[in-house]
């Protein structure tokens, strides 16, 4: 068996900050409705000081033919290559507390070797808790607060959740596998899945990302900025409402989702078990997607310009799209 350290390289100062209490992982993959996890990673890299700690070998982990990196061709020559980067960065929150962020594309290959390598880094860097974040599509309306499905490797790490869907089988993903392997190795691991309206699953949904940042801060006590995400969420909500208001058919479907959501929340407050699966037929994504096609196309186009591996990766302080640095704040998220 190969040494898991063969899968990554570390900086000379990688272990100078150890122990680092928290590692957040937000790897871009098929399971990230509303690009919620990607938005969290991009936001934290833009808002907080970052230093590259470890870089994984993409040739060992990425299937280039199934997920081809973008290249730029201009003036009869190739000028750019969007190299996939899977990296671990050391950040500091608004109060100077260190945290680690694992980000980049979800590996296509060698999942077991990759999880072994992450566990090795967790041990070497003295990480006490890992937190995975992403979005999942749900039959919820955009007019209600974002809810989060929380899960953990042992009792006491998160508030005991309501019964949502019982036992289900889901497609495998690196975030889930990391949580499983960390738990079996005796590490504390937490996952927060933001419930994104299924008709907005392909568009960027900053409401979900903002709530995920609040969940991370609340679970760890880290002082994390959230104001820019909240501002983007308000703008997105205004755009969605504008599109919905032009179609009575879409409005009717959203209203049906609101009734279902409100009925579930009311029932969930009672002692009897409840689930998100209603007795009546649920509205489908296609019912709304047809009316919101123009809006989603616009959002997807904007997301496409930012979905490359360079969009959220900022090695050693270079690159990125930082709009500024956060000011001083109290523990937990601030506006």
From TrEMBL:
Signal peptide per UniProt: none
Enumerate composition-biased segments (Basic and acidic residues): 306-317, 325-335
Q: Which Pfam families match?
A: PAC2
Q: Which residues cross the membrane?
A: none
InterPro entries (alphabetical): Proteasome_assmbl_chaperone_2, PSMG2_sf, Rv2714-like
Q: What name does UniProt use for this protein?
A: PAC2 family protein
- What is the superkingdom listed in this entry's lineage? Bacteria
The record ties this protein, via SUPFAM superfamilies, to: Cgl1923-like
Region annotated Disordered sits at 296-335
């Amino acid at each position: 068996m190969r040494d898991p350290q063969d899968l990554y390289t570390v900086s000379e100062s990688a272990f100078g900050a150890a122990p680092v209490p928290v590692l957040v992982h937000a790897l871009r993959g098929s399971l990230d409705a509303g690009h919620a996890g990607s938005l969290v990673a991009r936001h934290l890299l833009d808002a907080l000081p970052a230093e590259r700690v470890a870089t994984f070998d993409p040739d060992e982990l990425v299937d280039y033919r199934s997920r081809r990196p973008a290249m730029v061709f201009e003036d009869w020559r190739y000028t750019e290559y969007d190299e996939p980067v899977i990296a671990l960065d050391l950040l500091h929150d608004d109060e100077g507390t260190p945290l680690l962020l694992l980000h980049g594309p979800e590996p296509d290959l060698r999942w077991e070797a990759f999880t072994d390598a992450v566990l090795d880094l967790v041990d070497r860097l003295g990480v006490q808790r890992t937190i995975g974040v992403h979005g999942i599509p749900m039959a919820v309306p955009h007019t209600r607060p974002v809810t989060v499905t929380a899960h953990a490797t042992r009792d006491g790490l998160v508030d005991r959740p309501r019964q949502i869907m019982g036992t289900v089988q889901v497609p495998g993903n690196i975030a889930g596998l990391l949580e499983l392997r960390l738990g079996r190795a005796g590490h504390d691991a937490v996952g927060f899945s933001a419930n994104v309206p299924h008709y907005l699953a392909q568009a960027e949904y900053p409401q979900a990302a903002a709530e995920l940042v609040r969940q991370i801060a609340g679970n760890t006590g880290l002082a994390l900025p959230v104001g820019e995400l909240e501002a983007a969420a308000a703008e997105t909500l205004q755009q969605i409402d504008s599109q919905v208001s032009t179609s009575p058919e879409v409005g009717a479907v959203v209203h049906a989702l609101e009734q279902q959501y409100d009925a579930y929340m009311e029932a969930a407050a009672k002692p009897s078990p409840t689930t998100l699966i209603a007795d009546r037929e649920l509205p489908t994504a296609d019912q709304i997607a047809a009316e919101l096609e123009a809006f989603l196309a616009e959002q997807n186009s904007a997301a496409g310009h930012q979905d490359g591996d360079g969009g959220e990766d900022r090695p050693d302080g270079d690159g990125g799209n930082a709009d500024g640095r956060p000011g001083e704040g109290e523990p937990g998220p601030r506006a």
